[in-house]
């Protein structure tokens, strides 16, 4: 499990172009770098007066959210609109899909409406992958978070933020702190950091919030915060998923904050120029001290800005890949038309 | 009641152009054929890279849904966006309109915002017609389903699907199966099929789910499924409206499925090349066997694709008619400006 | 408090351009007149076939509604779309912002997404002003109603309606009738009328629905409806905010209607050509008699039409001001680029 091979071949075309974006796991370094380079150009554009490009003009992007997430939905909606796509938001509670229509029927229906891209959020691990298998070859699928499995656009916006602040990944020590066990973000971050060449990836959490075999992903485990933060270049805090945590796993928020909350005292163990990241929304006084969240080492708002750019990059690249594949799949038909 | 005369003159201009689309009943064959021809061109377009035309650019389409229907709303929203309209979705529960504001006030307010088109969904039969009377001449009204009365765009997408598969209506035997009593779709289908010249229209349902005098619409009644399906070219299944059915009318879902569910065995009575239709969402194992729904005679997903095209056709035609009428209504004013 | 000085300097640029629109209080007469002139041109445009201008193309407008208001949201959404902006609607219940994220974090996040404009609706007085302070200089803020404080776009659409019917404000007697105490609209109307030069502003309400010191705003107080309406040119009815009223303040709706409902009998005291206004939605038989609301002196639907135009005017002017200020703030950066 330690070799970065393509563990999700469905997300690439035969030529290695992005086709779906389901997980960072196993993607080639060149592809992740291409995402970051493309996103960089969109960051620059979003400071322009007209923040719009016609890359997805006439395309239909459907946000299929089986799990509510206003913030993630907003970033994808904005990204799609800035690419000039037509956007349809569908909040599909799991209960309503059970009532009469199967998930597959819903997907086939949306596909039959000539949708070009599904942005999928689902509480089940593997849902985005399942959907990509169902809808190929007409639709490109972007994973906006599936269960505990992956949240690849969040991971890539984090990578973009690191690269814009640190220049490169080589030589970096990065600590991921918090509820690793329930975090789809942490998994995606670890894969991306390894592929991009970070020197050392550490996870810091209480024993009860660590998944088994986490070391096999290539991360060093710390249960003591101060030791884990020593000399790191980047501190990536996770959001405490209160609603997902069993009370038996954690005594109290104040206890968690005391041991794993990022305070100025604990941050002093990191390098003097270490940056502090958090995916938001922030639970102030639970995961992080306000003075740190709002301090000069915080790059939390950069993450938000970069989030739009990364989503625009992934959407435009996946659309290109999907079109390239579709054209390859129908050469005879095209020739007949000549 | 057997003569196909225009029973809803409000929906045509003096010159016979479509102006509102409220019911298929009594419309001229030429007009229904024009809708199908226009929709055909949009089906072709939706396979293009850029699925957008500027026919409704700068126009405001308001989806006035007094009854929730995510699927129907989505198709109209997409159709309007692909015509380049600005779209406003208003989910107006009946209760909220009762709270302080009358329906008429709501309509006059939306009209005063210079809306150009209302897409109306309402649980009361006749609601779309009432609204069209109120808002004329500024606004075109499209009926997206009103009570048990009509669902004309659904009927026309069904007609488009039949024509694309069978080439013409002449000589066709068509069976409509299920809860005829509560179905606005069945009424609109029967009217459209008669006008377009289908040879024989059959309705198949238990006695308790048949409206009185259904024969007067021009349909032959069968209570036995196998007899009704014998030699038909088209099988149109209806959706079982569970929430609308009184328990006394029907013993159980399994009983219904046994007698009227479309299985491979029953389908064998139809012609070998008969097509199978369903408006969706499908209740598998209640109205239809999965092997039939997903089988080679099923054209259910074609119906979805055709649904966008038919809505684009009806919206663009009604907008043309409304503009033509408005120009005719103000010739003196225009002349004064010369 | 009787001098019309700029009580909210944040809403103007150094050069006196509109930059945010938070309150009508203290704005220069020239600026209010510019809003009306600009809105006038948009009223004319909205009768055109293509009701769209590219003034906000590539800009992102976020409707931040902390308090639900379908009608106000719709007018701002339509106005933004007709200016060609990309629009994001966020319904943020107060409870959800309490759950984990502070208001400031929400704002900073939306700002980091490179939003250009926030349209803010909030139940707390002063919320829009607070938000404008937080997000300057990247974002322009439009107040869509904050607590009992202000609802300036409603006031300005009322001013536009008066000017289009009466030609000017000089010499006009205007009566504002109803629940003055809880009305943000009344405050904004009184300020705007004074600034624009109305001759006499009257408020008519029961003693229990009058704020203390209302005279200091420049209004004459009447508790008797007939006396208050005598010889007025304009009658502005307020909406009865049932949910905000303490039962002790008012015995019953029928009692209120008897004393302060606008009937034909009471309207007879006003000038023969007096116009009747109401912000909607109307409570027929509570605030106003149907024969008056639908009568020839009613300009209620004109208010709706003018509401879109005023919002387009304010949005485009604030965007110009915000861009001018941003350019002034970065001259050195721009020069470095030469």
From TrEMBL, chains A, B, C:
Keywords, sorted A to Z: Pyrimidine biosynthesis, Transferase
Residues making up the signal peptide according to the UniProt record: none
Family matches, as Pfam families: OTCace, OTCace_N
Domain Aspartate/ornithine carbamoyltransferase Asp/Orn-binding: 170-317
Binding, carbamoyl phosphate: 71-72, 121, 151, 154, 280-281
Transmembrane segments: none
GO cellular component: a single term: cytosol
Gene3D superfamilies linked to this entry: Aspartate/ornithine carbamoyltransferase (3.40.50.1370)
Any one GO BP annotation for this protein: 'de novo' UMP biosynthetic process
One GO MF term: amino acid binding
Pathway recorded for this protein: Pyrimidine metabolism; UMP biosynthesis via de novo pathway; (S)-dihydroorotate from bicarbonate: step 2/3
Reactions catalysed: carbamoyl phosphate + L-aspartate = N-carbamoyl-L-aspartate + phosphate + H(+)
NCBIfam families the record matches: asp_carb_tr, PRK00856.1
Record HAMAP family: Asp_carb_tr (MF_00001)
Family statement drawn from the similarity comment of this UniProt entry: Belongs to the aspartate/ornithine carbamoyltransferase superfamily. ATCase family.
Subunit structure and binding partners: Heterododecamer (2C3:3R2) of six catalytic PyrB chains organized as two trimers (C3), and six regulatory PyrI chains organized as three dimers (R2).
Free-text function comment from the UniProt entry: Catalyzes the condensation of carbamoyl phosphate and aspartate to form carbamoyl aspartate and inorganic phosphate, the committed step in the de novo pyrimidine nucleotide biosynthesis pathway.
Protein name from the UniProt record: Aspartate carbamoyltransferase
Gene this chain is encoded by: pyrB
């Amino acid at each position: 499990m330690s070799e970065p091979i393509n563990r999700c071949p469905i997300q690439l075309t035969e030529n290695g172009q992005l086709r779906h974006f389901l997980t960072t796991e196993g993607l080639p370094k060149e592809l992740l770098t291409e995402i970051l380079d493309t996103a960089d150009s969109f960051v620059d554009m979003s400071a322009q007066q007209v923040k719009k490009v016609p890359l997805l003009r006439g395309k239909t992007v459907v946000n299929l959210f089986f799990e509510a997430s206003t913030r993630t939905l907003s970033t994808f909606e904005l990204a799609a609109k800035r690419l000039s796509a037509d956007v349809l938001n569908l909040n599909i509670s799991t209960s309503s899909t059970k009532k009469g229509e199967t998930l597959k029927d819903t997907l086939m229906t949306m596909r039959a409406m000539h949708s070009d891209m599904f942005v999928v959020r689902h509480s089940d691990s593997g849902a985005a992958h399942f959907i990509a298998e169902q809808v190929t070859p007409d639709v490109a699928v972007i994973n906006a978070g599936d269960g505990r499995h992956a949240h690849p656009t969040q991971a890539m916006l984090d990578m973009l933020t690191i690269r814009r602040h640190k220049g490169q990944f080589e030589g970096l020590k990065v600590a991921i702190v918090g509820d690793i066990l329930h975090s789809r973000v942490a998994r995606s971050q670890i894969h991306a950091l390894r592929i991009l060449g970070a020197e050392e990836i550490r996870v810091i959490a209480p024993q009860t919030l660590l998944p088994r075999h986490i070391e096999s992903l290539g991360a060093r485990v710390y249960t003591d915060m101060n030791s884990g933060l020593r000399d790191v270049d980047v501190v990536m805090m996770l959001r405490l998923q209160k609603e997902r945590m069993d009370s038996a796993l954690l005594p109290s928020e104040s206890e968690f904050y005391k041991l794993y909350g990022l305070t100025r005292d604990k941050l002093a163990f990191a390098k003097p120029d270490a940056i502090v990241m958090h995916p938001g929304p922030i639970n102030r006084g639970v995961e992080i001290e306000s003075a740190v969240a709002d301090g000069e080492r915080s790059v939390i708002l950069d993450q938000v800005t970069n989030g739009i750019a990364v989503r625009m990059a992934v959407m435009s690249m996946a659309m290109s890949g999907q079109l390239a594949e579709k054209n390859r799949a129908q050469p005879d038909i095209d020739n007949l038309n000549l």
